[in-house]
Design a protein that fits this description.
alpha+beta; rod-shaped; three-stranded antiparallel sheet; 5 helices
């Protein structure tokens, strides 16, 4: 809209402190039919704005509207990023708390517990597993269970074990293992697949218990 003379144009509301304004152009600030506000350009000169001037102001208003929208979007992104950062921090603290709780449970467990990748490479053993095999955690990480294999367990048992766990099932059985000091011991073992959020097998967890004493009583 264009107001040519603030003294005579009936659309003008007389405000004493703005009595020096003689011409005004108002252009909507719009982006994709979304109205952000209005750009008002004033002049002390009567009839200051012709069609060319109005078109220039309209073009400027269009660019200004785009800039304002971009600034609003940037501010919204920054706010969302800040909120996301807070949620990530809170979730990280929560996960660390859960990890410590799980670590305490594993450390206190009486059975030997180990985690391996899908190829059987050991990624974790608990203290009970160290006592059971005689090998420290630093000695077994990156190794496989062959480290304490005695050669007394039939190969068919291992074949069945791998077929079972690779198919996603739990294997339960007994093995004869060798302690680091060379003595043999009977071991009751359960192995279960570990799955990720997409239900893909990403590793295995094994729980071992020394049953040598019970086997000797049986014998």
């Amino acid at each position: 809209f264009v107001i040519d003379d603030t003294r005579t144009d009936p659309r003008w509301i007389n405000v004493p402190e703005f009595s020096f304004i003689r011409s005004r152009v108002g252009v909507w600030l719009r982006v994709r039919s979304h109205t952000l506000g209005v750009l008002s350009v004033d002049s002390r000169t009567p009839n200051a704005y012709d069609a060319a001037a109005v078109e220039t102001i309209r073009a400027f208003a269009h660019q200004a509207a785009i800039a304002i929208e971009n600034a609003q979007l940037a501010a919204a992104i920054r706010e969302q990023a800040a909120q996301l950062s807070v949620r990530v921090t809170e979730r990280t603290v929560e996960l660390e708390r859960e990890r410590r709780r799980l670590q305490a449970i594993l450390d206190a467990a009486g059975e030997g517990i180990l985690f391996t990748d899908t190829h059987g490479v050991i990624e974790y053993v608990n203290p009970a597993m160290e006592r059971l095999t005689g090998y420290t955690r630093s000695e077994v990480l990156g190794q496989t269970a062959r480290l304490w294999s005695s050669g007394r367990t039939l190969p068919a048992v291992y074949d069945q074990m791998w077929r079972t766990i690779m198919s996603g099932e739990i294997w339960i059985g007994e093995l004869v293992n060798r302690h680091k000091d060379g003595r043999l011991y009977d071991c009751a073992l359960a192995i279960a697949p570990l799955r990720d959020a997409t239900d893909q097998i990403v590793g295995y967890v094994g729980i071992q218990r020394d049953v040598t004493h019970h086997k000797e009583l049986d014998r």
